[in-house]
Structures are given as structure tokens and as C-alpha cells.
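Replying to the earlier thread about multi-chain prediction with a worked example.

Input:
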Amino acid sequence: MCQLLGMNCNTPTDVVFSFTGFAERGGRTDHHADGWGIAFFEGRGLRHFVDHEPACASPVAELIRHYPIKSKNVISHIRKATQGVVALENCHPFVRELWGRYWVFAHNGDLKDFHPRLHAAFQPVGSTDSERAFCWIMQEMAKSHAGVPSVAELTITLRELAARVASHGTFNFMLSNGQALWAHASTHLHYVERKHPFADAQLADEDLHIDFARTTTPDDRVAVVVTAPLTTNEAWTAFAPGELKVFVDGRAV
Amino acid sequence: MCQLLGMNCNTPTDVVFSFTGFAERGGRTDHHADGWGIAFFEGRGLRHFVDHEPACASPVAELIRHYPIKSKNVISHIRKATQGVVALENCHPFVRELWGRYWVFAHNGDLKDFHPRLHAAFQPVGSTDSERAFCWIMQEMAKSHAGVPSVAELTITLRELAARVASHGTFNFMLSNGQALWAHASTHLHYVERKHPFADAQLADEDLHIDFARTTTPDDRVAVVVTAPLTTNEAWTAFAPGELKVFVDGRAV
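Result:
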């Protein structure tokens, strides 16, 4: 199994604090040492980093921990291989383009007997069940809409598609096109919404805390979604099994 | 106009030496300061870095200069914006997936009145003539072949497609799927093949030289393709106008 981290904000925000705790789980405080990845939207553009070294030891992860890339939509993943060898092409998140937009996807879980017919423009490069599921979702999205649908319309489509994939096993996933963050839980997913008045937060995985009030303005809103809560003193909400939520401008819609 | 750098090798090789000289042109020894990017294949997998800061000042470029990522196929680009604003989505190289392979493309030049009908699965995310040309090439490749063709077959297809785009202006480009490096020149492109016996090389853009004999084995072969020669003491060959060359395992085929 793997771990997922997503962030959705109303103003470009750096993910350094959350990523620092999350990356510790990539080989140090937890055993997800088979690679990692992170994708940051900047408007329509995308920065995408993947590495098959453990996140806790990767020079690229070191860069992310110290270079505050600001983004309104971030998806990160640390991998414990269940299907597919440890290789760069099997590291999440995966990226495809559809309707002139990049789409980023990461998955935690394990799908059994999931071999859908991929007859369209999206084919997996690696050998994971996760990338196969992503390609199928992109294919079905492309069939359901002629262009980028509204967030509400796409949420309806994704709810149907997620349920079909989830019938094959555990399907916790995150998806973003830079406008919203969709998150679906089969088992473990938690979120917190940070907003004014901002408080102090203590990382669960490292002896580090931050006073968000010092780095934010009263209008800022940030939603963080993660496999297991990252901080010990915030109110995290667990997803219900089978629940798909969409986050826009730092809040659950 | 922009500058291009490509490397194709028979064994995974780091691009630190060539990139160090090349990145200096991104704002220091030359005026290509509107962003940059680099993509490294590792097998079927891909590392893709883009930044809209000048390459000579970018923290991500600093990482690349010091972290010897080894690859058999690399494409890099430093940008001087002619069409499209300075934004992350307009930084080359661009990436798309086709036939279960990633394809990486970078362009130097300027295309006039190039608005082909993009009716298939490849749509530009940004606003450059370059990404439009890439999407059209991917579309036409997908129409010409049912799956990944041989290098020789694809070279024939690309020669036809490149000539059609080049009728709209300057179309120096590089393309790779991790198996080969295709390079097409309208105006400026040069290459060198490094092989045994390896010699000393002196960078043109920085006071740095390297003795390749110390870091290579007699079987290594490396081809480097670039807009303007990177070293002052090697025999660079200029492309003829309209020439498309393909490099496999470190040599021009």
C-alpha cells in the first residue's frame, strides 16, 4: 500500500510543512520506500517530480523540502510496491493531457482482476494497476464530455467511474486538473480545512511545528487531504468508505 | 529564439558537463532567460523538469548541475519567448503519451500562420506555436502507425511531417521516446559523437574542462546535439538546412 497527500488552496501556498512530515513516511517513520512523486499546478502549467529512491533520502525530495514552490493544487504519493516493479515509470503521480489540460492522478490500494479495454488514446507506460485505472478513467471522461466540464458535472461522472473501479479492490485516489482536487476513499483518507483564525500545528512524523497565523492572511483557505493525519493537534475528518469529495478554493464543496 | 540540447548514449550517462555550459546561456552568457526545461528518460520512465525562472538562476537547474541523473536520452531547452507569454505551461520540453510510451519534444524557431486542425487526442495546454506543432506531429504519427513503429519507419514519417511544418518557418526540433533521439534543423543545429579514445573537452561558456577518458569505458558512445557548439576543442558537425537525423546508441544512424 502507499500513502497519498493532496493540497487545494484559494491562493498559491507552499506545501513544505506538510510534505516534510509526509516524506518522512517514505522510508523513515513508515515503510513506503519504493519511490515517490509530487505534482504542482501553476495555472495551467505543471511541475512533476518522480523518483524511485525513498522520499526520505532523495535529493529531489530535499529540493522540494527547501524550495517553496507555491501552488493551488498539489498531489503527492509515496509508494510501497504491490503491483509493478520499482521503476521510474511506476512512480505516481501519473500525468496525461485531455481537452488541453494536464490531469494528475495518484492511487493508494490494490485492484484485483482489473483489465478494462483501453481502446482509446490513453495507454499505460508502466505496469501498475494504478496507471491502468487512470487511463481507463481518462478514456471514460473523454467519452462522457466533449470538453472540460464544470467541476459539478465532472464530480458526477467521477463518482460513477470510481465506484466501478472500486468494485475491483481498494481504490483511494486523488485527481486534479489545476482547478479542483477530487479525492475518493475506499479505506483510509482524512482531510482538514485550514482557515482564519489560523493556529499552531504540530507534525506527527517529525519534531516540527508551525504557526500558520504568521505565514497566512485572513482570506487564505487551505484543504489538506492525506492517508493518515499529518498533525497531532488539528481536527481531521475521515472519509466514509466509498466517498468522493471535491475541493475547490481550499474547501470541500 | 531559443536553444536546444539533446544527448543520446549507448549507456546511461550524466549530462552535468554539457548542461552546465548550456544553462549559462539561460541568462548569463546569452539572453535566453524566459524559462527552461529538461527531460531524462530512464527506461520507459521519464523525469521532467520545467521552470520559468532563468536557467542560470533556477534552484531546479542547480539541482540538475549537481545531481548526476544518468540517462540514455535527454532533451533540454532554454527559452527566449517569441510566441506565448512567460509561463510554466509554455516551457519546453513538452511531454505526451502515445502507444504506451512518453514522447518528449522541444523546438527552437518561429512558425508563421501555423494553425493545423487538431481533431484528435492531442491538444496544447499553453499558447506556443511549438506545442501546437508537437500536438500536430503526435496526431499525424498516431494516424500513420498502429503502434510504436521501428526507428527507421518513424524516421521516414517524421521527415515528411517536419518538412510540412518547416514550410511555416524555422523548425529546429528534437524528439525522443527513450529509444532514439530525432533532431531536425531548419537553421542552427550541431552534433558531436564522443567515443573511444575519449579526450579532454573545454566548455565554451564557462571555464570548465573535463577529461572524458576518466569517466568512461572504451565501449561508451555519446552523441550530443546542440544549437551552437558547447566546447571549443571538439569537431562539431553542422546540420544541413532541412536535415533530419536520428541518433541511436550514441551514433547518427
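The longest strand of chain B covers residues 3-14.

Feel free to reuse this layout for your own posts.
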